[in-house]
Amino acid sequence: MRRFLDALYDGAAWLAALFMIGLLSMVLLSIAGRQLHFHVPGTDAYAGYLMAGAGFLALAHTFKRGEHIRVTLLLSALPPRARRALERWSLAAGAALAALLAFYSIRLAWQSHLFNDISTANDATPLWIPQIGMAVGTSILVVALLDELVLELRGLRSPAVPDEAVRNE
To answer: What contacts 24+ positions apart, CB below 8 Å, involve 102-105?
Structure first.
């Protein structure tokens, strides 16, 4: 199960990286178009879709690697028992909030598909297509938060500390 979950987080991160490459391509195409006097409709819209998708798809991988912003000042001042209780509460609250976001993201994409909602920009993209990135990314984040909560409850969690944080202290 651990290998599957790690592969899920890594796969979402690789997809986010591909979205970033697509974003770079859209920006470069837009710049080249201005310099060479041609226009490709929809490049701005597609750049926005790719940026949003990359951000949401990278959430779980970033969380599992300890790269999300955490305020550890309070945690470090607490005794171990209180620290563990606060960690459990934080993970449970985070999972609940992420589950709500995932539910409404999935619902938004589904409703956009049902109503044939399209972009108001000149690309006229069906909106459910770019909304899938948000729905999938938030759903994988829920899995990552629940994964960490289960590890914490079983006493197996060792919070990831990014290398940069170690060097900064």
So the answer is: 102/135, 102/138, 102/139, 102/141, 102/142, 105/131, 105/134, 105/135, 105/138, 105/139
Query: What span, in angstroms and rounded, lies between the C-alpha atoms of 66 and 69?
Result: 8
Sign, CA torsion 139/143/146/152: negative
pLDDT in tens, the chain (169 residues): 889 999 999 999 999 999 999 999 999 999 999 999 998 888 999 999 999 999 999 999 999 998 887 777 788 888 989 999 999 999 999 999 999 999 999 999 999 999 999 998 888 899 999 999 999 999 999 999 999 999 999 988 776 565 555 555 5
Task: State the pTM of this model.
Answer: 0.88
Range of the domain at 106: 2-168
How many structural domains comprise the chain? 1
